[in-house]
Hints:
Blueprint: H1 7-20, H2 43-56, H3 62-84
Helix pairs in contact: 2-3
Amino acid sequence: MSIVTHPANAAYRDNFDAVFGKKAPRSGDGDVPRRNRMDQMTPAELACLNAVSAIESVGCDERLTQAQILIQKAQALVADYVDSRQP
């Protein structure tokens, strides 16, 4: 199951206002950067998130941690590119 479709994420979004006392940020609110909003990520950014999640399920090892860090850096580079193309 991917991070995007995981039931816990839907429950989190549904209960955001109860937990934080305010409505969850929506598109155009400007409160949360695009790169941090799963609903606004590109397929490449989502693939990076899913890859990190898959590595977590493998186990615990310094090499796996390093692999996750590299993927997160790749995701940040993709986000930098996408954000630079936004008007």
